[in-house]
Amino acid sequence: MAKLDPIAEFREDHRKVRDALLELASAALAGDLIKARGILGQIDTAVGPHFRYEEETLYPAMREFLGDYVDSLIGEHDGAIDTAKTAARVLSQSSLSKEEGQVVAKAARELLVHVSNCDGLNILAERFSPEKLDELGERFAQSRAKGVPLLRWADTIRKR
To answer: Which domains does the chain possess?
Structure first.
């Protein structure tokens, strides 16, 4: 089996989530509750393994370069999880008002900021040794194989 390239996969995850968040904002503003729910579900499924990999593997490794700043990255996750929960709560209703659609669109845009900031970690990851990158790739693959969605991971596994 080919080894997973953690830098390439990390960047591709960010592209997919970026696009899904833009679609979520558009669907919410259009008042398309069903489409918005589906997109949020896709984001929840995709981002769970990604956040888990970051917090359990990548961020601890990044301490080599960033020191205690890593704690602020985990804090960004707290905010992203709270924002995702807000969007999920609004989209769980039977209808979506214009104002609620704006709330969800705003949440999606706030999550885009984290996606953009987080992608910048790749420039540092390029400095890891090939052996360290292999280890990161293995751990990323393990996180994906477990496949725990974001909100379930945040509520049941995450140690925070």
So the answer is: 6-155 (1.20.120)
